[in-house]
Amino acid sequence: MTNSFSHWDKVYTTKVHEQVSWHQDHATISLDWILEVTQPNDAIIDVGCGVSVLADNLLDEGYSNLALLELSTTALEATQKRLESNLDKVSFYNQNILEFFSKKRFKLWHDRAVFHFLTDANNQQIYLQKLYDYLQQDGFFLLATFATDGPTQCSELDIVQYDVAKITQLLGERFKLIKTTAELHPNPNGGAQKFNYFLLQKQ
């Protein structure tokens, strides 16, 4: 995974935000699962939020303790502007997840396609240690990655594909798999991308 803030700033500066391949007009599986396992006052972090409307959807449901982490300053500023009437309910982190620091601990950690950019095993372990350290006991990890028959690259970067066996082996005994599902995500520019979703609980 590139550590370059400039790479992702270029993506969000040169592309129409609604036309990036991962865009959703309304959060789907992520929103449904978050509503199932959390309460509106629970602390939730969206890692690699981009300009996602997941935060908007959660605010509409009465959530009031959200954190958004994003490498791209451009994307984060666009999201801040969009959510300006709810800034008292949202914290913003313009950080690389591998260097993440916060005084908060979270009930749910959401990642829709950041982790699969970590192609280096050492970086994967740094990420997972951050996840474990900042997730509350019995907290939830909601992860979406490209499926094993999905894309092999995104935004000109290599990715790692995951299925149930691969993700559970990587996470080990510290997390219990609650459920998983597949999604065929329609690309705004045409075609579709195959994602796998995993909901896990810290043990």
Automatic annotation (TrEMBL):
This is Methyltransferase domain-containing protein. Transmembrane segments: none annotated. It comes from Candidatus Thioglobus autotrophicus. Residues 40-148 form the Methyltransferase domain. It comes from the Bacteria. InterPro entries: Methyltranfer_dom, SAM-dependent_MTases_sf. It holds the Pfam family Methyltransf_31.
